[in-house]
Every structure is written in structure tokens, then in C-alpha cells.
TrEMBL record:
SUPFAM superfamilies per record: HAD-like (SSF56784)
UniProt-listed Enzyme Commission number(s): 3.1.3.5
Family: Belongs to the HAD-like hydrolase superfamily. NagD family.
Cofactor(s) required for function per UniProt: Mg(2+)
Function description: Catalyzes the dephosphorylation of an unusually broad range of substrate including deoxyribo- and ribonucleoside tri-, di-, and monophosphates, as well as polyphosphate and glucose-1-P (Glu1P).
Name of the protein this chain belongs to: Ribonucleotide monophosphatase NagD
């Protein structure tokens, strides 16, 4: 029985509205007993928040099934030396870092960690750039540059710090294979027994390809059929939506 890693936005939901058939698909996967991870690059919501979001759309999933780039960032940092972090992000990210034993501080941090936030300002950029320039390790939850309606996302918030310091962050989220390995560890799974389902060739499918997973593209979100030929890699399967998937 295969493990399932499934993206949320563009596969199960559009904003907070159900994509028809995705509820039936997820409930079938749970009934079959497949180990399931609902994986998102978005670090602003906790597992409980995401559970509530899907429940409101008609998809009932245990909280333990959710895995975010904030959780993967905390998992990554637990394997590194250092315990102090300067964080630009929301409560869900700092919550995961506190759980992992980190001190959140602007005094000699070992790491500068960037997530999504709407309260971004000059002082944050100034401090973060200074810390990175003086040796703090630069970590970002995900490389996405924007969300719906061109709302600035993590990659955009990293850009000024990159320009000032000349240093790139290490991105945890998709298409990095790190988040895939972290999600697999979360369910004690292995790549050869796992399928990833996503709507974006350049994040979900690329991450799965790089991590050695079987890949399923659904065209209900970002990537359309005409986008497939633009990339040098191919998904193993293509479906119009999650409700049509019949290979797991």
C-alpha cells in the first residue's frame, strides 16, 4: 500500500472552496488506510488551523496528517548546530521553533529564518541583513514569490536581504527534496513506496521527481496540460482533478 503526499491548494481547495471530487478522493484514501500527508509550503497555519480549514470545506482529515514548511523548517534546524533564531514570520512558525527548543531573539542569533508575514518592515530587513552579513545562517520556509492576487510570499520577502548581503537562503519547502524527506520521516515512509499529488510542475512535481517519488499532476490548479512540455521532466500520471485519480 502506497504512502500519499498530497498538496492542498489547487488540488483539494481553491482558496477555501472545495474542488469537486477532492473530498471523495481523500475520504477514499483514508478508508483504504494509505498513510497520508497533506503537505503545504505555506507556513502560516498550524495543523489544527489546516484541519479546520478543510473541515469547513467538507474534507474530514486527522490533524496528524498535515505537514507544513514551518514543521519541516523546525525539523531541519534540529539537525543543525545553534539554538537561537531571529524570525520574520507568523505564530505557526515560531510555535514549531519553540517546540523544537529554539530561542527566538534579536541578540546574536545563529539563524535568520524567513516565513510568510503581512507585518514586514524596514526594521526587519535591516536586522536580518545585518545578522546574515555577520554570519547567521539564512533559512527560508519556501521559495514561493507570491500567492493569490500577487500577494508577496516568502521568496519575495527574502529578496531584499539577498540583495543587501549577496547571500541566498536555504529554502526548505518544495521543490526542495528536504521537505519531502522530512514529510516521509513524519510517517516513517520511504520514497519508493510513495506517490506525490500536486498541481504545480515546478514545485510539487519537481520535488517529487528529485526525491524519487511517483508523481501525479492534476490540472485543477497552477499547471495546465500545455505547461508540461515546458519542463525537462514529466509526471508519471496526469488527471484533471483529484476526484479522477484511479491509480492509488
Amino acid at each position: 500500500m502506497k504512502n500519499i503526499i498530497c498538496d492542498i491548494d489547487g488540488v483539494l481547495l481553491h482558496n477555501n472552496k472545495l474542488i469537486p471530487g477532492s473530498d471523495t478522493f481523500i475520504h477514499r484514501i483514508l478508508a483504504q488506510g494509505n498513510p497520508l500527508v497533506l503537505l503545504t509550503n505555506y507556513p502560516v497555519q498550524t495543523g489544527k488551523d489546516l484541519q479546520n480549514r478543510l473541515d469547513a470545506a467538507g474534507i474530514e482529515v486527522p490533524e496528524a496528517c498535515f505537514y507544513t514548511s514551518a514543521m519541516a523548517t523546525a525539523d531541519f534546524l534540529k539537525h543543525q548546530q545553534g539554538s537561537k533564531a531571529f524570525v520574520i514570520g507568523e505564530g505557526a512558525l515560531t510555535h514549531e521553533l519553540y517546540k523544537a527548543g529554539f530561542t527566538i531573539t534579536d541578540i546574536n542569533p545563529d539563524f535568520v529564518i524567513i516565513g510568510e508575514t503581512r507585518s514586514y518592515n524596514w526594521d526587519m530587513i535591516h536586522k536580518a541583513a545585518g545578522f546574515v552579513a555577520n554570519g547567521a545562517r539564512f533559512i527560508a520556509t519556501n521559495p514561493d514569490t507570491h500567492g493569490p492576487a500577487y500577494s508577496p510570499a516568502c521568496g519575495a520577502l527574502c529578496a531584499p536581504i539577498e540583495r543587501i548581503t549577496g547571500r541566498m537562503p536555504f529554502y526548505i519547502g518544495k521543490p526542495s527534496s528536504w521537505i519531502i524527506r522530512s514529510a516521509l520521516n513524519h510517517i516513517d515512509g520511504h520514497s519508493e513506496d510513495t506517490v506525490i499529488i500536486g498541481d504545480n510542475m515546478r514545485t510539487d512535481i519537481l520535488a517529487g521527481f528529485q526525491a524519487g517519488l511517483e508523481t501525479i499532476l492534476v490540472t485543477s490548479g497552477v499547471s495546465k496540460l500545455e505547461d508540461i512540455d515546458k519542463e525537462p521532466f514529466r509526471p508519471n500520471h496526469i488527471f484533471a482533478c483529484a476526484g479522477d485519480i484511479d491509480v492509488v
